[in-house]
Amino acid sequence: MTDQDKQSVTTVFDQVAGRYDNPSMRFFPFCADRLIHHLRPAPDAKILDVATGTGAVALAAAQVLGPNGRVQAIDLAENMLNMAMANIQRAGLSNVDFHVMDAESLEFKSRYFDSVTCSFGIFFLPDMLAGLTSWRQVLKPGGRVMFTTFSANAFHPLAELFRQRLETFGITIPTENWMRLTTEQECQELLESVGFTKTQVIKEQLGYHLNQPEDWWEIIYSSGFRGYLEKLDAEQLGRFRVEHLAEIQSLMTNKGIWLDVETLFSTGVRHN
Length: 272
Description:
Blueprint: H1 3-16, H2 27-39, E1 46-50, H3 56-64, E2 70-75, H4 78-90, E3 96-100, E4 113-119, H5 128-138, E5 139-150, H6 158-168, H7 175-178, H8 184-194, E6 196-205, E7 208-210, H9 213-221, H10 226-229, H11 234-249, E8 257-259, E9 262-270
Parallel strand pairs: 1-2, 1-4, 2-3, 4-5
Antiparallel strand pairs: 5-9, 6-9, 7-8
């Protein structure tokens, strides 16, 4: 990925911010709760949440912290941060601060945070190594990083049908953009290459059944997938929707349409 890709991603997420918290995408709060469960922060912890989006992890963290704990949440998409602020205020919380900031070039002082979290955001960085190095720099010795990524099974076969249908419209999704850090080995090697110790990767299934094909459309139109749909004109988009949802309909069972959200929780400790 390039810096131009980073700007494109920011634009897409600014565009979808208002739709991001829809029920079809409830894997975000599911994942946030599990991440904080695994992290187990101390009540007075200082936590940095990178690529906070609409604040799912920031909210989950803020709820378990005591009066002396605080979350700093960053994102490049200002519309996402506005949604996150509203979510935090709605929850009656006041221990989260929000900043427009590049995850590859943090503006916090070194050795400040007890934990750095990033839920489904690290794979959007053009240089994941540089990003993770920056995160390590702001961690205290003994501090922990934890990020989540999707396994290679996540969203399949729905996502594969989406990719194949896009190709019939002349749009190719670069392999490196489609899924990154999809294996335990990749995640562990990245952590260790930056100098993290006590690395561990936990795999969990956070999936659920969608009630109808339109729920899948809500996911792709309200997430990073939206950027590829923007390449279609109005006539093409209408045709794509009809054809793709017919494919998704074929996956319907008496329980609904299974949405696989197999997730990797990767963690490491800054030793010194």
